[in-house]
Amino acid sequence: MLNELDKELERRGHPFVRYADDCLVFCKSRRSAERTKESIIRFIEEVLYLRVNKEKTIVGYVRGMKFLGYSFYIHSWECRLNVHPRSYAKFKTRLKELTGRSNGMGYEKRKTSLGLFIRGWLEYFKLADMKSRLQTLDEWYRRRLRMCIWKCWKKTKTRFNNLCKCGIDKGKAWEWANTRKGYWHIADSFILHRALNNDLLRRAKYPFLLDCYRKVVS
User: Fold this and answer.
1) C-beta separation of 125 from 70 below 8 A
2) 141 Cβ partners below 8 Å, 6+ apart?
3) DSSP structural state of residue 205
4) What pTM was computed for the model?
């Protein structure tokens, strides 16, 4: 049915983009956009006999407008794609679930689940500019990985032995193996940054956001 809407918008000369029943129509001014909104609603309801959700049909500046999870911003007089803040929030929530220290996942299942989710998400949003945002998110994500690994080293002896294997001297390893500080706090400590550094996490085949992003956009 909405093919007729496409033809009508083309006839009127409006730049637009549509996927299923999600549609953006671009106008040069707010006043023009208001007129277009009213006339297009009339066309949909009176010609196509379809109901329009008036609450979701809005007029606004292109910056920050959400479409299929993407948003838009202006750079050097050019309109470019970004990931909408709500899409980032959902992404971060899912990462938090997959890196939860009490979700019962073992090492391999966690790596597999993270790899599938991260690559799928990045494939969908690969048209967006998000390198700097991913860099910040990567730091938070790696801290959660360290937290999960530290949680798995439950016993003092296990922590001591593993810290020694990761190159920490015995005195410091014993001191930190006996610490009573919380998992999230320890995950950001210099000891775990040294013991579970980025290279070690990569060798253990944990997927990093920026690494996956580079592969997707290359």
Assistant:
1) yes
2) 95, 99, 208, 209
3) T
4) 0.86
Contacts of 147 (CB under 8 A, 6+ apart): 99, 101, 183, 184, 186, 187
Residue 70: CB atoms within 10 A of its CB come to 16
pLDDT tens, per residue, the chain with 218 residues: 689 999 999 999 999 999 988 999 999 899 999 999 999 999 999 999 999 988 889 998 888 889 999 999 888 888 899 999 999 999 999 999 999 988 888 899 999 999 999 999 999 999 999 999 999 999 999 999 999 999 999 999 999 999 999 999 999 999 999 998 999 999 999 999 999 999 999 999 999 999 999 999 98
- DSSP structure class, residue 63: B
Query: What is d(CA 69, CA 111) in angstroms, rounded to the nearest whole number?
Result: 25
User: 99 in helix, strand or coil?
Assistant: coil
Can you read off the two tokens belonging to residue 108?
Answer: 């391999």
State the Cα–Cα distance between residues 161 and 166, nearest whole angstrom: 9
Q: Are 72 and 80 in contact (CB under 8 A)?
A: yes
User: What is the distance between the alpha carbons of residues 81 and 175, in angstroms, rounded to a whole number?
Assistant: 49
Here the tokens at position 215 are 């592969």
- In whole angstroms, what is the distance from residue 140 CA to residue 133 CA? 11
Q: Sign (positive/negative) of CA torsion 143, 149, 152, 157?
A: negative
Q: Which residue has the tokens 């996927």?
A: 19
Structure tokens at 217: 């956009």
